[in-house]
Design goal:
The chain is mostly beta strands and about 280 residues long. The protein is built from no helices and 21 strands.
Length: about 280
């Protein structure tokens, strides 16, 4: 000002790494994760090359990540190794003599869900269960224990093994005939993690009712047959019969024998003076 001048110095900094991060700090082994590099400012012309170092030989990740000119962030992908136990992996991102670190814990695969196909079936019919893991099973596979809340209704194997590199395994569910619809919880456990799935075992219902003829001379005997949807449980299944007209007189009840799905029976008819429609 006037004849007086003073000088000052402004230092303009090149970008440095502000953070290195991942969506999850505890991803599952065998998965591919996305990392994010953020800078303290925008990259100049030509971009910035950030050096990446990872402290585990089983992790596949790029050695460098380029942040394009005019941007202050960039993403990269890394593939994690399958692990047997929690595995801590340190990361380091450096640029222009400064660095930031990040600590990741890789988790072994554990039970994600236990499902069934079909989810409901008549007692005595086979069903198939499936255990799904959160990631790939390691070398030697992942052992999963199974427990049925009602093994007398729906039985499952004590354990199943998810093969190495696989994410799921199927197992048989053996059901027995029941008198009423029954829900059964099946628990799958690996390590400290348990998941519960539910199967519904159905009591049998009438699925087929057929007669030997749709037209018959009154006074003759008609034959009938009833099929049920599943195998009859101990003691058999009692089926009640009704007639809309006394000229056709089926037994009030019939029994589908234990372990079977069908029963036949006779239905006497009476002579009539005019043709008569009867509903059974």
């Amino acid at each position: 000002t006037g004849s007086l001048s003073v000088n000052g110095t402004l230092k303009v900094l090149a970008p440095r790494v502000f953070t290195i991060s991942f969506l999850s700090s505890t991803p599952v082994g065998g998965s591919t994760v996305t990392g994010l590099i953020r800078l303290t400012g925008k990259a100049p012309a030509g971009g910035c090359i950030v050096n990446i170092a990872v402290g585990h030989s089983g992790v596949t990740a790029p050695a460098t990540v380029t942040v394009d000119a005019g941007l202050d962030a960039a993403t990269f992908s890394a593939t994690l190794p399958v692990v047997l136990v929690d595995t801590v992996v340190p990361w380091k991102a450096s640029l222009n003599g400064a660095f930031k670190t990040y600590t990741m814990t890789i988790k072994p695969a554990t039970v994600l869900a236990v499902t069934f196909s079909p989810s409901s079936a008549a007692g005595g019919a086979p069903m198939t269960g499936k255990v799904t893991l959160t990631g790939q099973a390691p070398d030697g596979g992942t052992s999963v224990s199974l427990v049925s809340a009602l093994p007398g209704v729906a039985a499952v194997p004590v354990t199943v093994l998810v093969p190495a590199g696989a994410t799921n395994v199927s197992f048989p569910v053996t059901t027995v005939p029941v008198f009423s619809d029954t829900n059964v919880n099946i628990t799958a456990t690996s390590g400290a993690i348990s998941k519960v799935g539910t199967v519904r075992v159905l009591a049998p219902v009438v699925s087929v009712f057929v007669l030997s003829a749709s037209t018959m001379q009154g006074g003759k005997t008609l034959s009938g047959r009833v099929n049920i949807s599943g195998t009859a449980p101990a003691g058999g299944v009692v089926v009640t019969l009704y007639s809309s007209n006394s000229s056709v007189s089926p037994p009030m009840t019939i029994v589908v024998p234990e372990g079977t799905k069908t029963v036949g029976f006779s239905i006497p008819t009476s002579a009539v003076t005019v043709s008569t429609s009867v509903t059974l």
